[in-house]
Amino acid sequence: MTRVQQNKIHGLTLRRLWLHGLAWSVLVWSGLGLHTAAAQDAPSSSNDQRTEWFRDSKFGLFVHWGIYAVPAGEWKDGKNHAEWIMLTGNIPSAEYEKFAPQFNPVKFNASQWVELAQDAGMKYLVITSKHHDGFSMYDSKLTDYDIMQATPFGRDPMKELALACNQAGLKFCFYYSVADWHYPDFPAKYSQRGFHGNPNPRADLEKYVEYMKGQVRELLSNYGPIGIMWFDGGGSFNKQPMAQLIHAQEIIDIIHKLQPMCLVNNRLGLPADYGTPEQKIPGQASKDLFEVCMTLNGHWGYNKNDQNWKSPETIVRNLADIAGKGGNYLLNVGPTAEGTIPEGSVRTLREVGKWMKVNGDSIYGTTASPLAKTPWGRCTAKSRKLYLHVFDWPADGKLIVPGLKNKVTNAYLLAASDKTCAVTQGAEQVTVAVPPEMPDKIDTVVVLEIQGDPQVSPAR
Ligand code: GLC
């Protein structure tokens, strides 16, 4: 395929996506609210078209928010609980349900959350519509155990977030737990450690699947365009064939019927659109799409005793590491029962945002590093540019790029693109003269503009 052809197709995709977004905005702004049950008039898209925004976005905000924020991680003598507190505290449904009337997040402000994500350089937001505890954090007509009917809050935060994300240009996405410790038809035998808050020996998984399908329909019909349906079982179903048992393909078909552009992660028991390594970064690049999800402290849900925040340096370097392997980074916050995002996560995210404002080009729209060895840090690539993410600054001011055979036509620091760096070209390596002091202690990005596609030895 020639370059021109590629661009044409690319342009078409963008235009269609734009129209797609416009159609939704019209719905949002036309006083119809966000309600629509009609299928979107979107193209029957190839995997590549649907995943384009995702591949380019690289960085998203994960939000674990539910009535488990009320106990804030503490139950009886334990202080290390979070969103699993119902199971880890062995709390029966009748007792756990009492958190709902105490959940009144009056400080919740969707625009502030979205602004925080956007300031940090994030391009999408994934939030728990229902976690393993079975509590629906949105207005569900299929249960009373939801935020509208079981709490004094009286607002649907998902609707507010959908609107705020739409306005800010962030993709809005839902997490949804397959495992359900509250719904009477979810069999305990398929739950994590066989736990259920009110186990029912006559539980009928088929009925539960119908409920799940209904909730998926609600989520994809009432909140505008959904970027991703992010399923999670959290290790339930043990060794049983989950995809078969829950009719996973039928669920995916429902999603695509309602929203053909919506992505589905790989936790329905089928590979679907992309993989989800959790809390760790793969050692190698992969040709399959993936997204690393990770906590900012040691918990997904709010735990008031956990102040062990990852530093901005760790987050930025993780992001460069992941992007350098071709993946995305989904970074989690666990808001309080009042509706605020903990100060410690806000602090880190703001600092990450400062780095992203200067260096975002080295992350968005990039692909994995073509270089096999980057002893000083990581590398990302975009068209004819290599972004060298330097974590260990060379004491002698000579940054060696092993294995790069291309002619380098320009080299500069991304933070100071007008100041070029001298380059010495060897047969199998390039040496860049960099300032003696490391300009950005978190990650200084050196840009190399190269002639032709990357030629490296050994090949990655
Ligand atoms: C695990 C946890 C779950 C969390 C998820 C995020 O599966 O069980 O609580 O939501 O990770 O990836």
Structure notes:
The protein is α/β, with parallel strands linked by helices. It folds into two domains: 11-362, Glycosidases (TIM Barrel); 377-450, Sandwich (Immunoglobulin-like). The chain has twelve helices and 15 strands. It has helices at 3-29, 47-57, 85-88, 93-96, 110-119, 147-150, 157-168, 205-221, 242-245, 248-258, 312-323, 343-359; strands at residues 59-63, 124-130, 171-177, 228-232, 263-264, 291-295, 328-333, 377-382, 385-390, 398-402, 408-413, 416-420, 423-425, 429-433, 444-450. A seven-stranded parallel β-sheet has the order 5-4-3-2-1-7-6, with helices on both faces. A five-stranded antiparallel β-sheet has the order 8-9-15-11-12, covered by helices on one side. Strands 10-14-13 form a three-stranded antiparallel β-sheet, with no helix packed on it. A hairpin with a 2-residue loop joins β8 and β9. α5 packs across α7, α5 packs across α12 and α8 runs parallel beside α10 (248-258). The two termini are 24 Å apart. The model is unreliable at 1-45 (pLDDT under 50). The structure holds alpha-D-glucopyranose. Residues 64, 83-84, 232, 234, 278, 293, 300 line the site of alpha-D-glucopyranose. Alpha-D-glucopyranose (GLC) binds at residues 64, 83-84, 232, 234, 278, 293, 300.
